[in-house]
Amino acid sequence: MSTTDLGMPGLPPPGRPEFPPFPEAAHDAVRDERLRGNLRHATHTIRAKRAGAVAEVSDWAELREAGRRIKDHALRHLDRYLVRVEEAVTAAGGTVHWAADAEEANRIVAGLVKATGEREVVKVKSMATQEIGLNEALEAEGIRAYETDLAELIVQLGKDRPSHILVPAIHRNRGEIRDIFRSEMSEWGRPAPADLTDTPAELAEAARLHLREKFLRAKVGISGANFVVAETGTLVVVESEGNGRMCLTLPETLISVVGIEKIVPTWRDLEVFLQTLPRSSTAERMNPYTSMWTGTTDGDGPRVFHLVLLDNGRTDTLADEVGRQALRCIRCSACLNVCPVYERAGGHAYGSVYPGPIGAILSPQLRGTRSAIDASLPYASSLCGACYEVCPVAIDIPEVLVHLRERVAQGGEVTRGGNRVVLRPARGHGAERVAMRAARWAFGRPGALRGGQRLAARVRRFRPRTLPGPGRAWTGTRDLPALPAEPFRDWWQRTHGGEEEEK
């Protein structure tokens, strides 16, 4: 049975090559000096600014804990809050649609756009629509989607893929952006000035003029949402440019595609995240633009509003007691900016719209661990813990990574979307299982362990530089640790034996 038959979300569509496993993609990425320079400069700059913004808040630890509790409560009672959202949105004049997977969500959105008679839409930056491949699905239906976020515009014009949650074009420098604007803008609308330079002000002005005609012409807008307030059915989008607000207010029809995990119970709960999200993402005290809408209002904003609530693997993730904490994520990208692996490999190596540490635990859960790329993502980490330290909702990413590694190594059986799926151990992990079994045998027999340690100490001068067989991959990028002159047990007995006898 194919992945399409199983309805697995987020995998490359038929006819498109599957992304390579993370080690292969990262192997090429780390050799791109320009990419590494762009990433190093950008992540270090954002990281330093975030630290300063967070340091201004005396109760940051309390806010972080409050955010964790709110999200856990909402997820625990998600069934109840989803019904409340539907009731509130409907009462406010909106229409709610339920999408079990990417295919259903794309079909719903395409149908809604076609019903308006329009063949183009403007889009607010949205991870959910990237996750389901909405732009490509609309294009297949003869509908052109225009990204209006500056970074998303750069990616779209450059026929590229996003590489960062907050700054999708983080892998591009100003010179590259200028070249993209000069060569590609004319194919999408208003061309860039012939004498365009790489100064930020000129690049921003070129994008502003290019997008303005689309805002004034578009009859349909598509968005995601950062949060959905259950008690009133209010959707919230926070941004820094104002392009999102143009999409949310000017079109006659607004379609919002939102993951079911974005719900917060009350307005009081929202207040916590409006403090933690901007500081963790853009290092601002508050976002320049915070847009909120509840259904439709006569004479103000779109006349028609549709909310598409997206599952796409989230319910299955919620069933995992350890992995479900990934659904707390508020998409701030703080974990990416401190991750040494992301800084060197870049976002494209993750083969997902969710790169970095959060992508390494979210993508395999939403998509399953049966593909080579998803089976490799839990290993795309040094487990240093920096991601957990900066997460504003306290997602223990290292814990989930280890949990998912166990799932990949052991294989097993899960149920997704009503289908029984067998998770087979990824190729190459057989040797790992043998090594773990050998370690369990030795650690369960103190005499054998002591004898092995003493033997290793006596033959330490013959220690090889690399391990043979499957171990060669491990020592190919690491130094094999030196063996001590005597085992720890012997050292302890020699230095503390007398004390033990006195006791």
UniProtKB/TrEMBL annotation:
**Stretch list, region Disordered:** 1-24, 466-503
Limits of the Lactate utilization protein B C-terminal domain: 404-494
Provide the alphabetized UniProt keywords. 4Fe-4S, Electron transport, Iron, Iron-sulfur, Metal-binding, Repeat, Transport
Q: Where is the LUD domain?
A: 84-296
Composition bias of kind Pro residues appears in 10-23
Instruction: Enumerate composition-biased segments (Basic and acidic residues).
Output: 487-503
> Looking at the keywords, is Metal-binding present?
yes
Location of the 4Fe-4S ferredoxin-type domain: 326-395
Report the protein name in the record. LutB/LldF family L-lactate oxidation iron-sulfur protein
Question: To which species is this protein native?
Answer: Streptomyces similanensis
